[in-house]
Amino acid sequence: MKRPFIIDCDTGTDDAIALMAAFGCPEINVRAITSVNGNVKEEYTSANNLNLTEYLGIDVEVARGATLPFYPRGDYYGPTHGKTGLGDVVIPDAKETSFSRDMAPEVIHRIAEEENGELELLVIGPMTNIAIAISLYPQLKQQIKHIWFMGGAVAGGNVSSTAEFNIWVDPTSAKMVTESGIPMTMVGLDVTTKAVLGREDEQELRAFGSKASVLSADILEYMFKRCKDGGEDALMHDALALAAAVIPECLTCKEAFLDVECRGEYTAGHTVTDIVGRSLGKAPNASVAVELHLDVFRKWLLECIKRCGQA
Ligand code: RIB
Ligand code: CA
């Protein structure tokens, strides 16, 4: 029986690769893609999701979502994903498909009802849509089976020395979600900064020659240029959160108390993770990834991308 998922994303270069991997994952049934503001404005993240699914021939509900975090942080759209979110990669505009009639929180609610406690969420952008959904429909706390999210860090950050981007954009939402009681797994920078693809992966994908594998190779090519110019490397942040759900053997996770700092001039967006369970004396509420087995992950990711759109 395939596991039903909704993927909430701020597509984004690495989000797009994670989506293609998800569509090539035999274990899961992607019920919907919900868009959120994050890497770029929601008008771009949602357009990327619709264009990508139509380009690949993937029949899935695509919904628009939150355009602002709960506590707007001004203009934080950096150069990492370019103006449109996909760097210099261009996908044809969707012509045949359109957005869901429902916004993200409604889609999450409707599908959670339909899936009767089996729905899992892959959350790979700021958590605004999830927090709004839980606020509108508190029963989601019992209906969502598991949240697998890319965000946070046990140590360090990429927006600052203390905060990772997805959590930093909307710490209020992230705090609401981590306090919800929904079982969750945090895939943070501690492991995603090691989830790097290289030239040989790009060449393998380009040689495979499918729409998804060539598009992924083009995105990797953009990431390599970005890295050469001093930007982020070809880090598969979001695909690793999917891997945590599907091939947990690629990660070592530890139970921990997890909370989010929402205040503090220099610490807002920091994920407090008490892995040792001593210093804060609070019960664990999350599983936190602390080690990555890179070769297992890379092999799996390329296989999923190659299966994408090949049904
Ligand atoms: O910090 C990395 C995260 O921020 C990834 O999800 C990336 O897509 C950006 O959203
Ligand atoms: Ca993302």
From TrEMBL:
Annotated ranges, domain Inosine/uridine-preferring nucleoside hydrolase: 6-298
Pfam family, one: IU_nuc_hydro
A single Gene Ontology CC term: cytosol
UniProt superkingdom: Bacteria
Gene3D superfamilies, A to Z: Ribonucleoside hydrolase-like (3.90.245.10)
Amino-acid biosynthesis listed as a keyword: no
Cited PROSITE patterns: IUNH (PS01247)
Record key words, sorted: Glycosidase, Hydrolase
GO biological process: purine nucleoside catabolic process
Molecular function in Gene Ontology: purine nucleosidase activity; uridine nucleosidase activity
UniProt xrefs under PANTHER family: INOSINE-URIDINE PREFERRING NUCLEOSIDE HYDROLASE (PTHR12304), NON-SPECIFIC RIBONUCLEOSIDE HYDROLASE RIHC (PTHR12304:SF15)
Protein name in UniProt: Nucleoside hydrolase
